């Protein structure tokens, strides 16, 4: 067939895929963004470095959870503060592109090390993704454009009289680090899809519904609101897994790239509003910049050129800002800049240790002496230490809803008014764990008399039971109640109104 | 030479990513080593219908009780409004947190440290206005308390119990007299710290972000 490629062509296209050359603009944007995102979490942690990462505090090494005790050495308090300070500094210099490669290498080692020392409040899956990001950035030439390093290099070339535009033009490098970054995020999504495939409750909406109700992340009021509409979760579950599986295969070029990245933005913004995740989305958005091609940057450049030609004030302002930043960078050679970098590292690191010592965040040297412990009322504590009680009957159910249509296994609509002959679906959603239960959903008239008694077994693995009713014309129009009973107790009731056809 | 190094790096890096992906897909040795955390992408792998919090309480020789978490100098809240010690689903670091508080505080000799799990149904997390829209009954939240661990004053475990969720699941099973009898038959003479294999498809607490 004519569209089949020969082995040599395939090898060439694979070589092109990894070794085509380009100016690494995309990786430069990742370099500028990712460290800033990590600074958002590392700066607040710096104040707690002694407590989180050192022998003077309560480090919580991840390796302990895997049975690898003493896998990594836990540093002393001042050393942990020094390392945290150095990490903050090198994340900043990585973003600015000052001694870029060394900054990124130091950031990678320290960020991973400190994360591994605190699995309670520092290490998360976004940390793992960010560590991959820093690793790939440190292998790339992301500092060769839009960085202090590149600025100093070009200024030094100009001063030495080089006017050849080709010499001043940013250098091209093999594209493989960007490919690794793109493949990495695609494989992360594919792994996330496997997790969902392993979790049947993801497709029935139950898993996501309970995550929407959790308070272990940041505030998520929209998630709490959406938990009432499980049918939307069923639809979004299938869309999400489709996107996660397809991403690594089609997010490379053309409209597919725009679609996959666009869906990625929508998905991660969704996790912010629905689940209260802030940093995870920002880490992923930073890595999306690796999908920025040289042609995209050229298009932006042409757009700005048109703005300049039209005499745009915005463009003039941007240009003056960029020029004033350039003027603010002292007249030093690259070698001098490296020396200054070394001095700054030493000063900031020792300075950080000194400042933290003065702040004394754990109050170990406070004038009042050691902290007193907070005493607890025995009336509060003793019930906490008793034999655990069994779950209340009412806690075994999550919700009871009435509608007329189902999507998957969940109610699609909520209704209170029904006509004679119209199907009624009453659905009771359960909270695991529960034993095998007999759950009744009884129809009562407005005076409380039982008209119909319907029961069914919910075995311990079931998360919902549904009851179908059709009210015949022999029932008078008016108010009725559907009453859920379990364990010999009334759990809840809902009023419905029957109207004539 | 540069090209060979680059090819080696590409093959090694992608090989590691694919190994993690395969391990996760086939559920094969995903917890074999701490580094697996960096290549197994199991975000939000578990779930629970119950929210839980951890209380770390010390009992002094006088019989008085003291709160060890958060520490008196303040707590660190990493992901929202709740303190760091609540993000320890296996209670494996509670002893270290307790000892850290005791180290910097003035207190009577401590006899025991209790790690207590507090749990409540997540439906009670709904704000009052949404509760009123969805439920006809009044909001009546109830917390269950469960002693997860008892530690000595040196932080060494004296007793370890199942997590609340597993304990309740076992209670549900014990309603079946045949299963209860079978599970109580042939108890070992020595108790080992064996891990119970839990299916990944089941509902269980997890704190993946």
Number of helices of chain B: 5
> In this structure, how is the largest beta sheet of chain B organized?
5 strands, antiparallel
How widely separated are the two ends of chain A? 65 Å
β-strand amount of chain B: 15-25%
Overall structural class of chain B, as computed from helix and strand content, comes to: alpha+beta
Q: Shape of chain A from CA axes?
A: globular
Q: What is Rg of chain A?
A: 31 Å
Overall helicity of chain B: 25-40%
| Rounded average pLDDT of chain A | 93
Oligomer: heterodimer
Flag low-confidence runs of chain A: none
**What distance separates the N and C termini of chain B?**
41 Å
Task: Give the number of helices of chain A.
Answer: 20
- Beta-strand percentage of chain A? 15-25%
Unreliable segments of 5+ consecutive residues of chain B:
194-209
* Counted beta strands of chain A: 14
Radius of gyration of chain B: 22 Å
Structural class of chain A: alpha+beta
Q: How would you portray this structure in words?
A:
- The complex is a heterodimer of chains A (501) and B (209).
- With 501 residues, chain A is an alpha+beta fold.
- Chain A has helices spanning 7-19, 25-46, 49-53, 62-65, 77-96, 100-117, 125-139, 148-159, 165-168, 176-197, 200-203, 206-212, 221-226, 230-250, 254-275, 279-288, 294-309, 313-328, 334-359, 378-385, and strands at 21-22, 173-174, 371-372, 374-376, 397-403, 406-407, 410-411, 417-419, 423-430, 437-445, 450-458, 464-470, 478-486, 489-499.
- Chain A is built from 20 helices and 14 strands.
- Chain A starts with 6 loop residues before the first helix and ends with a strand.
- In chain B, strand 5 (144-151) and strand 6 (157-160) form a beta hairpin.
- By secondary structure, chain B is α+β, with helices and mostly antiparallel strands.
- Chain B has helices spanning 2-25, 94-103, 128-134, 164-173, 177-184; strands at 50-60, 65-67, 105-106, 110-121, 144-151, 157-160.
- Chain B has a 5-stranded antiparallel beta sheet with strand order 2-1-4-5-6, with helices on one face.
- The chains are: A alpha+beta (501), B alpha+beta (209).
């Amino acid at each position: 067939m004519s569209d089949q490629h020969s082995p040599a062509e395939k090898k060439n296209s694979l070589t092109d895929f990894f070794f085509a050359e380009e100016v690494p603009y995309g990786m430069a944007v990742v370099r500028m963004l990712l460290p800033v995102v990590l600074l958002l979490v590392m700066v607040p942690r710096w104040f707690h470095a002694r407590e989180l990462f050192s022998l003077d505090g309560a480090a919580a090494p991840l390796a302990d959870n895997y049975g690898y005790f003493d896998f990594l050495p836990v540093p002393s308090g001042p050393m942990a503060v020094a390392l945290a300070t150095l990490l903050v500094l090198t994340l900043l210099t990585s973003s600015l592109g000052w001694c870029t490669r060394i900054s990124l290498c130091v950031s990678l080692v320290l960020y991973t090390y400190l994360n591994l020392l605190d699995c309670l409040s520092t290490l998360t899956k976004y940390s793992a993704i960010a560590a991959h990001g820093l690793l790939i950035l440190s292998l790339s030439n992301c500092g060769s454009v839009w960085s202090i390093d590149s600025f100093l290099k070009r200024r030094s070339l100009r001063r030495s009289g080089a006017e050849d535009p080709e010499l001043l033009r940013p250098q091209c490098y093999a594209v493989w680090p960007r490919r690794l970054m793109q493949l990495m995020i695609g494989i992360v999504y594919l792994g996330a899809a496997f997790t969902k495939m392993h979790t049947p409750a993801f497709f029935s909406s139950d898993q996501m519904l309970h995550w929407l109700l959790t308070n272990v992340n940041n505030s998520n009021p929209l998630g709490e609101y959406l938990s009432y509409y499980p049918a939307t979760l069923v639809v979004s579950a299938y869309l999400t897994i489709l996107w996660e599986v397809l991403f690594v295969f089609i997010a490379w070029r053309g409209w597919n790239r725009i679609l996959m990245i666009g869906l990625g933005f929508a998905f991660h913004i969704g996790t912010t509003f629905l689940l209260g995740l802030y940093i995870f989305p920002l880490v992923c958005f930073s890595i999306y910049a690796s999908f920025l091609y040289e042609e995209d940057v050229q298009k932006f450049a042409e757009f700005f050129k048109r703005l300049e030609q039209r005499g745009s004030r915005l463009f003039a302002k941007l240009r003056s800002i960029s020029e004033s930043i350039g003027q603010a960078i002292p007249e030093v050679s690259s070698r001098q800049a490296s020396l200054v970098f070394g001095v700054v590292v030493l000063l900031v690191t020792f300075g950080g240790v000194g400042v933290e010592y003065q702040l004394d965040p754990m109050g170990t040297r406070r004038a009042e002496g050691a902290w007193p412990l907070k005493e607890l009322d025995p009336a509060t504590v003793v019930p906490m230490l008793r034999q655990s009680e069994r779950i209340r009957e009412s806690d075994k159910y999550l919700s009871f809803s009435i509608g007329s249509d189902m999507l998957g296994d969940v109610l699609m609509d909520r209704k209170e008014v029904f006509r004679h002959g119209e199907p009624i679906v009453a659905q009771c959603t359960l909270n695991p764990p529960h034993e095998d239960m007999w759950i009744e959903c009884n129809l009562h008239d407005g005076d409380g008399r039982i008209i119909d008694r319907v029961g069914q077994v919910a075995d311990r693995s079931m998360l919902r039971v549904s009851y179908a009713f059709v009210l015949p014309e022999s029932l008078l129009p008016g108010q009725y109640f559907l009453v859920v009973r379990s364990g010999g107790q009334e759990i809840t009731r809902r009023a419905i109104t029957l109207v004539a056809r | 030479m540069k090209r060979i190094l680059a090819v080696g790096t590409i093959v090694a890096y992608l090989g590691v990513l694919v190994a993690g992906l395969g391990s996760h897909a086939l559920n094969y040795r995903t917890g074999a080593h701490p580094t697996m955390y960096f290549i197994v992408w199991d975000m939000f792998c578990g779930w629970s219908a119950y929210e839980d919090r951890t209380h770390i309480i010390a009992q002094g020789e006088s019989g008085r009780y003291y709160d060890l978490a958060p520490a008196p100098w303040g707590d660190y809240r990493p992901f929202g409004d709740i303190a760091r010690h609540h993000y320890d689903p296996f209670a494996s670091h509670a002893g270290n947190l307790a000892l850290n508080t005791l180290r910097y505080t003035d207190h009577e000799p401590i006899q025991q440290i209790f790690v207590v799990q507090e749990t409540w149904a997540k439906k009670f997390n709904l704000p009052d206005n949404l509760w009123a829209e969805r439920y006809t009954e009044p909001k009546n939240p109830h917390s269950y308390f469960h002693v997860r661990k008892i530690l000595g004053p040196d932080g060494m475990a004296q007793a370890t119990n199942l997590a609340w969720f597993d304990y309740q699941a076992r209670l549900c099973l014990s309603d079946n007299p045949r299963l209860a009898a079978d599970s109580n038959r042939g108890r070992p003479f020595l108790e080992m710290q064996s891990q119970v294999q839990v299916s990944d498809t089941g509902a269980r607490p997890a704190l993946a972000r």
